[in-house]
Write a structure and sequence with these properties.
Helix content is 19%, strand content 8%. The chain has 99 residues and is α+β, with helices and mostly antiparallel strands. It has a two-stranded parallel sheet with strand order 1-2.
Amino acid sequence: MWGAYFITLSVPIVSAIEVTIPLTAPSGAASLMGNLVSLSIEQDRWTDWAGTTEPNTFFNNILDNFIQITNTPPFVRIGADSEDHTNFSYDVEVNVFSC
């Protein structure tokens, strides 16, 4: 007569893992190039990032902080994949800000 056998595995469930991240790099760590980080912003959201009637101070502060930390401004590319479906018009008026 054939019998049915069931095997029960007991596996502990991990609910949390504690990770400590040091504030400074180890002395032997390699330096990263400042231009390692870049931004790609969708064209239809560019005015949210740059600002329309006045500069977006939050975004400008992020860029300034990044420059202070790395001594290099990040590359910013406007368009992501929207260049595939964007129409350019010379008639669009924009505000130009100096940062």
